[in-house]
Structures
1.
Amino acid sequence: MNSAIIQETASRIQPLNPAWRAQAQARLDRLTKPQGSLGRLEELAAWYVAVREDLKSSLKKKVVMIFAADHGVVAEGVSAYPQDVTFQMVANFLQGGAGINVLARHVGAEVQVVDIGVKYDFSGFSGLISRKVAFGSRNLAQEAALSRAEAEAAINVGIELAQENIAAGADVLATGEMGIGNTTPAAALAAVFTGEPAATVTGRGTGVDDAGYRRKVEVIERALALHQPDPRDPVEVLAKLGGLEIGGLTGLILGAAAARRPVLLDGFIATAAALVAARLCPAVSDYLKAAHRSAEFGHQVMLASLGLRPLLDLDLRLGEGTGAALGINLLEVGLKIYHEMATFAEAGVSGKDS
Ligand SMILES: O=C(O)c1ccc[n+]([C@@H]2O[C@H](COP(=O)([O-])O)[C@@H](O)[C@H]2O)c1
Ligand SMILES: Cc1cc2nc[nH]c2cc1C
């Protein structure tokens, strides 16, 4: 049933119609500036218009969705922090004290926190979206991180939450995640989908030392040798290598694109989810902007394979959706330029050919 929903959602995603982008660019070219001089702010505005298929489209409701989950692979010593930080940070998000809360407040975005697979019982917590598929994934170095049914359920959670948010008026969705250990499955997914060796797409995550880094690369190599994942079956790859939050983000991306809503990608883990989504439906990348290039080694390789050029390069490697939140600001600025700047005719300024 979930697999049919995933297929149906992917089948509704259409490549962007370039006529909308061209019409938006025609207006941008009439504004009082040398043509193209607002660079990527113009690109963002034209992209948003093309995604929404509306020359008057506004950007009001902005949502950052944080999917949180745990990872059995932490038993291999691949993170610099203990697993409990996942649930502790979920509590911090709900109290408004995390980095993402500060940045989301700054850009006027709502933060939603989804328990899709944290190894903790949150009964009694308020404000949390409870969509737990399992109490964490299993250790991908030893066995499949998820069953295929769990992977599909996680993707389906993301699709449903995208649909609910869009029905409630969300204009843009920003990806967030929290999960101690999740740069390991993200790097493993990157290796499978880009075809690069593990060492080329693996970084230090929360900051493992040299020995931890060597262990991490070795764990990923072992997992790839064990599972022999076939990139032509992206859901199976996700199941073997994991991450329930990565599955949730995959669904969020698919659900948003199917409903013509733009998605701002955060860093390394969000981009791993985008790789899964793009294998399910290549046209999905039309609906994505990479908000930033993470300092996590290997992120650039993933972005290049998706054909995405990051907007910001701030050496961020926090996750949570922090880079994506900053991208919201740029998108909003691009649209303000598009809507509010005077044209040459309105301002009585001489154009290039007059
Ligand atoms: O978004 C990124 O590029 C990013 C890069 C490195 C680390 N993180 C965050 O750090 C956690 C994963 O790091 P690790 O070392 O535990 O695998 C997880 O909670 C992510 O949100 C995020
Ligand atoms: C404290 C902390 C906050 C985080 N936010 C996202 N990943 C994180 C990892 C740690 C360790």
Note: The pocket of 5,6-dimethylbenzimidazole (ligand 2) is lined by residues 81, 85, 89, 178, 206, 318-320 (CB under 6 Å).
2.
Amino acid sequence: MKIIADENMPNAQRLFSHFGDVELVNGRSLTHEQVKSADVLLVRSVTKVTRELIEGSSVRFVGSATIGVDHIDLAYLSEHNIAFSSAPGCNADAVTDYVFSGLSHLYMTKGLRWLSKKIGIIGYGNVGKKVYERFAQLGCQVCVYDPLKMGSDSTVNFVSLNDVLACDVISLHAPLSRSGAYPTENMLAERELEALKPGVAIISAGRGGVINEDALIKKYQQLKGDMHLVLDVWHREPVINQQLVAIVDIATPHIAGYSKQGREKGSWMVYKALCQYLKQDICSERKQDAISSGAISVIEIKGEGCREEVLARSVQAIYDVARDDVRLRYKYREDKEKNVFDWLRKHYVERDELHTCFIHSNQADLSRLHDAIGFKSYNK
Ligand SMILES: NC(=O)c1ccc[n+]([C@@H]2O[C@H](COP(=O)([O-])OP(=O)(O)OC[C@H]3O[C@@H](n4cnc5c(N)ncnc54)[C@H](O)[C@@H]3O)[C@@H](O)[C@H]2O)c1
Ligand SMILES: O=C(O)[C@H](O)[C@H](O)COP(=O)(O)O
């Protein structure tokens, strides 16, 4: 069996080589020629799995080690009886950590007291739900817009899009879609952004095409820069709008989901799906090696300062989103000719998820706060 796998898929050789020959490839530039003799194709979000790529090939199974599936022509795969599996929720913790690291940065640099703000979320799927729950457990006033889930759970504060757009902090977690009753492409354009108020913080870690970048720049200018922006995803990746980069607080190269554990979980979920497709037993011993523990196991915390500061210190000890922003700005300045965006993603400096670390404190309220934001904690 021939397996083509994206070179950025962690553990690909280790997990898949007993099925057959694994060839690692650059997913962004993958061609039909490379794919045509493969039986199994394992991709990430940068490979457009279209008719052009796989028609006439021997591919019978496509796996994507990602949450998003907007790069896959699902209708084509199903019409041609090609099995497909993605990795729903694999990096939901990573993206949620990214959101709180972004807010921690806004507190540490600009004093944003986000815990007392009104929080609005767009999309209540695997990511949006986690983000919502962490805010709710932190005691924040939080609401969510998801027209497809509206009313599905009476304990959740579902609201209209306008209500979310009137919030102080807005976190975007909708998929990119071009059809259906509620397509998201360009869903936040000039008219919708009108509703934003001065001082709003926007965190965009879903897909780039959901927010109209020109309209966002215009709104920023209208508000005379009184806006906080944390952007991980961009309209024309891997090319990014440098005018936008120049005005945002945090610019990162689509790495919100790039925790070590999140990327490993993606590979593991696709491995399990392929075992199922091939009717082979899942080798659960492999899982122990497949998902790493964190590099820092315990943080001892005294808890001086306001709650945002206490949280920022511990969140940033595990993941400070500013490091990815600094790296991006530095690389774009130094290497203008190269594909900096993909280089940064390929050479990503590993980070762990918050839950891999215990918080040790002698104050019960600090433990609760840290549990709520995603750590594990225990009292002395
Ligand atoms: N930046 C990253 O690294 C990164 C990592 C993971 C996921 N993502 C993106 O985030 C998206 C969300 O992830 P997820 O795991 O929560 O996906 P999911 O499929 O579990 O949930 C998506 C949710 O969005 C809702 N939705 C659909 N159309 C909507 C609309 N018009 N308005 C509001 N909500 C709408 C759906 O009903 C669903 O509840 C993914 O599709 C992916 O594109 C980005
Ligand atoms: O949809 C996802 O899971 C994320 O966007 C994913 O982390 C993107 O990473 P990529 O597949 O491009 O390496």
Note: The two ends are 54 Å apart (CA to CA).
